[in-house]
Amino acid sequence: MSNLVASAAGRVADRGPHIPPRTSPVDQIYVEERAAALGKRSIKKATKVAGLKLAVRMMDLTTLEGKDTPGKVRSLCAKALRPLEHDASVGPVGAVCVYPNMVPVAVDCLRGSGVHVASVATAFPSGLSPLPIKLDDVRRAVGFGADEIDMVIDRGAMLSGEYAKVYDEIVQTKEACGQAHLKVILETGELGSYDVVRHASDIAMAAGADFIKTSTGKVTPAATPPVTLVMLEAIRDHYYATGKRIGMKPAGGIRTAKQALHYLVLVKETLGDAWLTPELFRFGASTLLNDVLMQLEKERTQAYQGADYFSKE
Predict the structure, then answer these.
(1) Whole domain around residue 136: which residue ranges?
(2) To pair with 234 at 20 to 30 A between CA atoms, which of 73, 127, 214, 224?
């Protein structure tokens, strides 16, 4: 009996005074129906063009491959600065996201442009290295010049109820970031339910996240409108409780201009116009940009251009 009492006490202590309690269960039917309904909004031409240009400015143009080279990163940075060569009104993007060892290349290419340099860290994408190694990873990326750090949480700890561990790792990662902004990746495709996504969102924000992010892009499913809506509602409730605006970044699986507009509608209807800025909303983009550019050219010329007219990085 004493062992059971000690175990229960340990679980209570593990939640800690700063760990947000679970909220009421997420209403799955409501979330999925509302997310689907907001995707059916009719958007007129002028608003559509403005929305697509905004989506470009909100993109984290990303390359996270083992075969990344300095030349590939330089090419990506050039596209980030001028996504559509003949139209300076399109872009630049919000950030270029690379592995830590490619940060100096991106910093050199983007210096003075206003385009941020983001880097993944904390044993991306698994998050399973010891904490000192994760923190060294963060400090190194920041030392190389990264403005933003995209960290991954320990999903095993989250799913096994070790909420204090998840919270403490985010707190320490935020400290290691110094002046750099911290995006906390939940990897929602591995969390199993909207309830766990909501709780992980609350923990990340309480621990100091500047952004919460759906996915690494390495796991399926990645971003979806319903899971994004759950996270947006968590951000809304956090703002009502604290007055602090937290950013949102859906990433992975967003490939078309139509999907991008759907996400912007979700943001506007849930958080309002204040969040329709690259400072508070980003897309994780590796394949999205070219489809948005194709749609902008279609709106301009009334004819589709083939994908071959747009560079592929």
Answers:
(1) 23-309
(2) 127
53 contact partners, CB below 8 Å, separation of at least 6: 89, 90, 296
Token reading at 13: 């202590």
Report the chain's C-alpha Rg in angstroms.
20
Which positions are annotated as active-site residues? 150, 213, 249
CATH number for the domain spanning 135: value is 3.20.20.70
Please give the chain's pLDDT, 313 residues, in tens: 333 333 333 333 344 558 888 888 999 999 999 999 999 988 888 999 999 999 999 999 999 999 999 999 999 999 999 999 889 999 999 999 999 999 999 999 999 999 999 999 999 999 999 999 999 999 999 999 999 999 999 999 999 999 999 999 999 999 999 999 999 999 999 999 999 999 999 999 999 999 999 999 999 999 999 999 999 999 999 999 999 999 999 999 999 999 999 999 999 999 999 999 999 999 998 789 999 999 999 888 876 666 555 566 6
Residue 171 and residue 138 in contact, taking contact as beta carbons nearer than 8 Å: no
Which residues touch 7 (CB under 8 Å, ≥6 apart)?
A: none
Q: Measured between alpha carbons, how far is residue 152 from residues 121, 126, 181, 250, 313 in Å?
A: 7, 7, 14, 14, 25
Question: Which residue(s) pair with 97 in the sheet?
Answer: 62, 118
Within a domain: residue 16?
A: no
